Amino acid sequence: MSAPLRLRRLPFGARLSLTCLMLVTLGGYAASGLYMQDHHQNRDGTPGLTKTDIEGVYHGVTVEAPLGRLIEVEHPKEKGLDPMNEFDRAQLTEWLKATDQIVENWQNIDFGDGSGSPEEIVTMSCGKCHGPGVSKDDWVAPLLGSWDDYKPMAFQNEVSPTDEAILLASTHAHSLALGTITLLICALMYATRMPGIIKGLLTVLASAGLLFDLGAWWLARDNPAFIDLIIAGGAAHAGAMGLMMLLVILDAWLPGGRGGAHEASG
Questions:
Q1: At how many degrees (to 10) do helices 12-40 and 51-58 cross?
Q2: Most CB contacts within 10 A, which of 24, 176, 194, 197?
Q3: Based on the domain organization, do 133 and 207 belong to the same domain?
């Protein structure tokens, strides 16, 4: 019986070609991650890719108004500065809750107990750091001076999930492309000298992770709890694939001979 394929037995040209292709594929996975971050981030109004951004893509989500979030965390307390007083925070919270009257009540001096309009409360508090009259040394971005500056921060954002036809096309492309690549990388992994337990663990993580990731795209449309499965599955697949490609490259070049009689049964 012929000996099984081992990467270290391949001729120099074959191992060099394999290394180049593994590096290209690794770069493709890295580019895919960067594209996902660039394409899907900021759906929740905050920089960077977050779980809320992913929920918006596959399920849809209502994102709280940025000003409401700042009031909730008592901004700028996290910067060591005194936050807005409790009474004003409550006034602004009530103002933001009436989403259909936000614009109408912005300059309404009779809003709430009549102690001041939301505009007066906000500009008195936020204007200390973000107002146009703040000195250059004390000013903090963004610039908040007029209603046009505050408007994007005052309204909640309804993020609709990806259209079903687009999701279907994406599933089709990802299933065939990533399924094929995963199959090939797993096969190459079994041609390395790595212990069987490592081969089995990484190939299962890559394969099951891809299944759970793509399957959860559709399950999450009805139940946002499956967003965690998308994240976990995607991380397991990408992490296992990246590690397997590195091990394939390593195994192809590590010293240890080009094969021997002792490998005939391995």
A1: 90
A2: 194
A3: no
